């Protein structure tokens, strides 16, 4: 039985069961639900938004920061703010992280950045703590960096206030059900409480959840069909982590999945690293297509770009996360 079906995920979480889902067979050739997908596309080094229900061509929204510290875009999340409306949180393995004003005219270059920093050490994730406007970043070199503002409505006032050693730091997600900040890296995911505000913001009282010895965590994401869990990918599987009990349930038993997301319809999609021949390089961490699954967990269709793509992550474009 496949645990990506909404009712089965809920049952597994409640019962604490942990069977591995075997994703076999083929489902529908196109999405039965329509939702938007945001991708980190490294061939053109862009954040792009596409619809699930049609072939991908010209994106509905694009952010192109150039190269240098913005090379190899590695993470994107969209969040609502009182001062700017919707913003995009972005990270790049080249060393930079930032907040993009999504509504700003001119999404080419870095002119739409509301704030940026250069934590270095291969940034892989970024998250915002709502109501206090703090930003947390994860660098795979082994660090979480916390940035606190002096004015919640002014991201330009953000400054580094805390650095935490965290081996293999790759993924971050804010759990607004329990008001906890989750991070994932080598062998574990950790849930942090947040204390203080403004420049006194700190991550405290970390609770560790094992993802298995030898597993490097890649991503964290919400299940938009079940607010009691987080979806995580690591070296050998995709798993669901119960936010309250911390029970870990296997959703899919294949590895090398760089990101995994699930829509409210129960449909899901991932980027699984297979490598790419674009550039004639050896980028073994990307895939030229995004694989979609129907609500029953069967592979249904893929999306790619006719002009070439190297996808690293794909997420549901939504600010209504949980």
UniProtKB/TrEMBL annotation:
<protein>
    <submittedName>
        <fullName>Uncharacterized protein</fullName>
    </submittedName>
</protein>
<dbReference type="InterPro" id="IPR006311">
    <property type="entry name" value="TAT_signal"/>
</dbReference>
């Amino acid at each position: 039985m496949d645990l990506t079906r909404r009712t089965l995920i809920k049952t597994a979480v409640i019962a604490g069961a942990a069977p591995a889902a075997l994703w076999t067979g083929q489902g529908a050739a196109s999405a039965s639900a329509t939702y938007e997908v945001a991708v980190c596309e490294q061939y053109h080094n862009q954040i792009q938004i596409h619809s699930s229900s049609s072939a991908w061509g010209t994106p509905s929204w694009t952010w192109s920061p150039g190269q240098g510290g913005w090379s190899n875009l590695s993470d994107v999340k969209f969040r609502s703010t009182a001062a700017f409306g919707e913003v995009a949180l972005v990270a790049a393995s080249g060393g930079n992280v930032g907040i993009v004003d999504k509504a700003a005219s001119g999404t080419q270059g870095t002119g739409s950045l509301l704030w940026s920093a250069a934590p270095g050490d291969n940034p892989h994730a970024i998250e915002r703590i709502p109501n206090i406007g703090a930003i947390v970043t994860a660098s795979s070199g082994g660090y979480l960096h916390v940035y606190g503002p002096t004015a919640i409505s002014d991201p330009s006032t953000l400054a580094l206030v805390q650095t935490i050693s965290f081996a293999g730091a790759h993924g971050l997600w804010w759990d607004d059900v329990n008001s906890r900040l989750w991070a994932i890296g080598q062998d574990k995911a950790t849930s942090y409480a947040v204390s203080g505000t403004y420049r006194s913001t700190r991550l405290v009282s970390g609770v560790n959840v094992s993802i298995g010895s030898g597993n490097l965590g890649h991503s964290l994401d919400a299940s938009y069909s079940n607010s009691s869990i987080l979806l995580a990918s690591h070296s050998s599987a995709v798993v669901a982590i119960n936010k309250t009990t911390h029970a870990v349930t296997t959703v899919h038993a294949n590895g090398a999945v760089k990101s995994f997301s699930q829509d409210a319809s129960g449909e899901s999609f991932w980027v699984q690293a297979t490598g790419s021949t674009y550039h004639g390089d050896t980028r073994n961490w990307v895939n030229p297509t995004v694989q979609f699954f129907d609500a029953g967990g069967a592979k249904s269709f893929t999306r790619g770009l006719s002009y070439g793509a190297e996808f690293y992550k794909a997420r549901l474009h939504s600010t209504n996360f949980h």
